[in-house]
Amino acid sequence: MTATLTPDILSALEAQAIELPSWAFGNSGTRFKVFGTPGTPRDPYEKIADAAQVHEHTALAPTVALHIPWDKVASYDDLRAHAEGLGVALGTVNSNTFQDDDYKFGALTHEDDRIRRKAIDHHLECIDIMDATGSRDLKIWLAEGSNYPGQNDLRARQDRLQDSLQQIYARIGENQRLVLEYKFFEPAFYHTDVPDWGTSYVQVAALGERAMVCLDTGHHAPGTNIEFIVMQLLRLGKLGSFDFNSRFYADDDLIVGAADPFQLFRILDQVIRGGGLNNPDVAFMLDQCHNLEAKIPGQIRSVLNVQEMTARALLIDREALAAAQSANDVLGANAIYMDAFQTDVRPALAEWRESRGLPADPMAAFAASGYLERIEADRVGGVQAGWGA
Ligand code: AOS
Ligand code: ZN
Ligand code: ZN
């Protein structure tokens, strides 16, 4: 089945915006090897230039998330002007408390007041940067936990976490938000201080209205019904943002929609059902790394995957579905749902893109643009950016 996209669907798609992570353009790898790639950005300015390419070819990615200290620069006003000159804006600021020896046994949960203070101060510095970049969201992901039963007092760590978050939240501006990400394991293996949406919810609910939960699609145990969590957080008004990616086994950070497009469809269905699509209170971000594939096309493929699954989810005949659900028509309801998922929206999206002056095939247009060849030739020398740089 191929789709006809109605004006309502097209206007919902036109408003769609997906934030790109600056770190997707730097080198990354596994704990076994980081592969260097010709043309990889050498600084945050070049990462933003690459991100702007994604937006230029798709009109889907108007903002770029920063990671501090990886994206530290002398002047954030200058970085902001650079981004704006390329047609994009600076987005979420991500803190980092996982690459400093001091944080070996915790940061915002640390028993030692000096280390906990240092971690809190790092977040206050991130908020100063947000003031300069015009960013709304401070995203906190914590690598904290323990490896052995008995190693730590789990409860005291929750109390210290709440106290640290209170101090950070007190500095969050009127138009800013604190977004707390959860992850069920890694790098700690026995317990993680923010392992699930419930813990994140409990911690941010105690802070106030401008504190929200971040749902990273790769941070759940296999078999978890993620769309149920999406529904619940939207119902509670606490879904602040998504980190989109795909996983097969753990936190694989692969291209969103690559491992399980049906799961992405189901998530986006709940987003639409819960009023989250194009709702400014819900930020859609990618949190991915491209270890083997080329980075800019990897990001283009990713935002197109989100767009395609959004279009399919918008095709669900909600009236017919509601009627089938009320009638307990099990197979009828499932068939309506699956009909939308099984519809090929690609030809209709290509045609629509062309009608807006965009390339029908953004992947092919980027490949033909010569940009990749240019950066490979120009960015010789210097240190390539990557995790930790
Ligand atoms: C880590 O697993 C998380 O997904 C975070 O979102 C992290 O901040 C991101 O991967 C970049 O460091
Ligand atoms: Zn994440
Ligand atoms: Zn992750």
TrEMBL record:
Keywords: Cytoplasm, Isomerase, Manganese, Metal-binding, Rhamnose metabolism
Gene3D superfamilies: Divalent-metal-dependent TIM barrel enzymes (3.20.20.150)
Coiled coil region boundaries: none
InterPro entries per record: L-rhamnose_isomerase, Rhamnose_iso-rel, Rhamnose_isomerase, Xyl_isomerase-like_sf
Gene Ontology molecular-function annotations: L-rhamnose isomerase activity; manganese ion binding
Pfam families: RhaA (PF06134)
Signal sequence extent: none
Biological process terms in GO annotation: L-lyxose metabolic process; rhamnose catabolic process
UniProt cross-references to SUPFAM superfamilies, sorted A to Z: Xylose isomerase-like
Membrane-spanning intervals of the chain: none
Protein name per Swiss-Prot or TrEMBL: Rhamnose isomerase
Organism: Microbacterium mangrovi
